[in-house]
Amino acid sequence: MRKSKIHRTYGLLEASKPWIADLPEYVPGKAAKRDAAGKLSSNESPFAPSEHILEAVSKAGRSLNRYPDPLATEVREALAEKLWVSEKSILVGNGSDELIYLIALAYLSSESRVVVADPPYLMQEIAGRALGAKVVKVPLKNYRHDLVAMSEIDADLAFIPNPHNPSGTVVSQAEIERFLETSSIGLVIVDEAYVDFVDDLERTSSLPLVASGRVAVLRTFSKLYGLAGARIGYMVAPSEIVGTLRKLRPPFSVNALGQAAAFAALGETESVEEIRLLVREIRKRMTAAFEKAGYTVVPSQANFVLVQAPDERELLARLEAAELMARPGSTLGLPGHVRVSVASPATLEQLEETLTV
Ligand SMILES: *Cc1c(COP(=O)(O)O)cnc(C)c1O
To answer: Whose alpha carbon is nearest atom 6 of ligand 1?
Structure first.
């Protein structure tokens, strides 16, 4: 049989491009064995979707013989109104992870350079490297993005998760503005997956910086809105960027059930506000519980806490004995730490109990 050119060049088809063979594998958070509430390893919402959302999903199910709206018009209209931005500047994706890939596909090649924090949000490093780009990692400073050092890197694109995952820290909008002024980076992607949980949204979110033409903001329904399983996220960006990504996006990547769930969730302002406050309260209590047990906790602005644990396995085993599954820092590029997602009130009590014995 005649060998294809790619086969002849690289050998095995599994490794069609050598830099793809070298990519690290994404390791998901462990599931809890007996009670799903004990899964504190993936920063999901501990609260199931409301009856109102479930009804909307069930209703949308009746039209599953039809393709979904490729532009998620209802969701975009509701978002445009809520965020005071034009619908043309919003693109909805199959989770923000799809949007990260589309950005890489559109803007990166083997000649590009990307700057991220060390540790980065792994999907951002993987997407950059998948396109053959060089990913430059700049160590966190005091668990925060070192934007001064990052601004000195010669790069085409920067990914800034804010709050940062896995540290839970934030940089201010003013700091990102200064970063834009001092760096020559063409495009800055601010990933605001956890921004709903920060104490001062107005001084943190980069949404107002989109007007600079160099900033795209990513958000998701996976965390505050409790729809991680529905796979829906969005980008707010200059309309040219939205137009470019739209050409690349598989038109039906955001399914009809996810669109229905997200649209219904946007109508639930009161219960969402309650959840936001509750998550912040539980975050405070979790921090206090770990500190009381002698651990040092990185002050978090997200829906998880990062606990210093020189012996990761000891803390993980202690939590696992109580059926609580957390994420080892060594799988997130931060050895000597354990990341614990915000729990439901009942699971919080379990955690407090475990930490006092
Ligand atoms: C959880 C998370 C997301 C959300 O991804 P989805 O694909 O929308 O579920 C994005 N960025 C970061 C940094 C995250 O931790």
So the answer is: 95
Q: Whose CA is nearest to atom 10 of ligand 1?
A: 193
Ligand 1, residue 97: give the atom nearest the CA: 7
Task: Report which ligand 1 atom has the smallest distance to the Cα of 233.
Answer: 8
| Ligand 1-lining residues (CB < 6 angstroms) | 43, 95-97, 121, 161, 165, 191, 193, 220, 222-223, 228, 233
Q: What is the pLDDT of residues 262-306, one digit of tens each?
A: 999 999 989 999 999 999 999 999 999 999 999 999 999 999 999
CB 191 within 8 A of CB 162: yes
Q: What is the pLDDT of residues 224-260, one digit of tens each?
A: 999 999 999 999 999 999 999 999 999 999 999 999 9
| 36 token code pair | 């799903």
What residue type is assigned to position 278 of the chain?
L
Span from the CA of 178 to the centroid of ligand 1 (angstroms): 25
8 A C-beta contact, residue 225 and residue 193: no
Which residue matches tokens 């804010």?
162
Q: How far apart are CA 151 and CA 185, in angstroms?
A: 8
pTM of the complete model? 0.95
For the stretch 192-214, pLDDT in tens is 999 999 999 999 999 999 999 99
Query: How does the average pLDDT of the chain come out, rounded?
Result: 94
Residue 231 CA: nearest ligand 1 atom is 9
Atom of ligand 1 nearest to the CA of 220: 8
Sheet with 297-298, edge to edge strand ranges: 297-298, 304-308, 337-341, 327-328
